């Protein structure tokens, strides 16, 4: 692993009286793709929320680029982390282009037009659909738009929550292919939460498997895939 960009140390998080994370520690190296896997309710989404400050952290620490990261969504975005939530979070009443422009809201420079073009090299169909309402895009296109919008903020880290949700396998493969290319060609660092362990492990260098709010196993994608007991107990294939 390269130097850690994101570090979670004994992170606890709660929804009201209910603790959902009971001490999660993980690291994402600069330029790495790391997956968080696990069954329904294991705490994957909560882990991303605890990083981005959308759920209350009740213990532990998050560090980003060597500094403590406050649990305040604006501070997290400003630090260079883009969170693409489950269910995509595109603004369905706005056009494709308006969605992309919103992705650049933390930026003060005037490169937005150039960046729309840069992002469209990854998703060529975006230019043709600039004026289309996001709500009329297919599920896969909306997921890609959500990722494209995240890239508009020129993040150092993208956190993707379950990009495969409700999408056909072919579309899921296409999304992961783009994530892999962004990682290889632009050095983008990605923390991806995924229930589909098989596809996530094709892309991620390393993974953490959560079970009831704790890390049950972790290792390189190759190690996890080669371990039949891990595959059967935790990865579901
Ligand atoms: P899934 O793949 O089903 O989304 P997950 O691994 O992402 O699962 P989380 O959504 O992080 O799991 O949920 C972890 C625990 O926190 C679960 O027990 C869940 O019921 C609880 N939880 C999640 N969101 C809330 C909420 N808004 N209020 C109360 N409890 C919640």
What's this entry about, in short?
The protein is an alpha/beta fold and 237 residues long. It has ten helices and ten strands.
Structural write-up:
Helix content is 38%, strand content 29%. The mean pLDDT is 93. Helix 3 (96-103) runs parallel beside helix 6 and helix 4 (112-120) crosses helix 6. It is of the alpha/beta class. A hairpin with a 2-residue loop joins strand 9 and strand 10. The chain has 10 helices and 10 strands. Bound molecules: adenosine-5'-triphosphate (ATP). Adenosine-5'-triphosphate is lined by residues 15, 18, 20, 38, 40-46, 195.
Number of strands: 10
Spans of at least 5 consecutive residues with low confidence:
none
* Class based on secondary structure composition and strand pairing: alpha/beta
Widest β-sheet, arrangement of strands: 6-7-8-3-9-10
Q: Could you state the oligomeric state of the chains shown?
A: single chain
Give the SSE order as H and E letters. EEEHEEHEHHHHEHEHEEHH
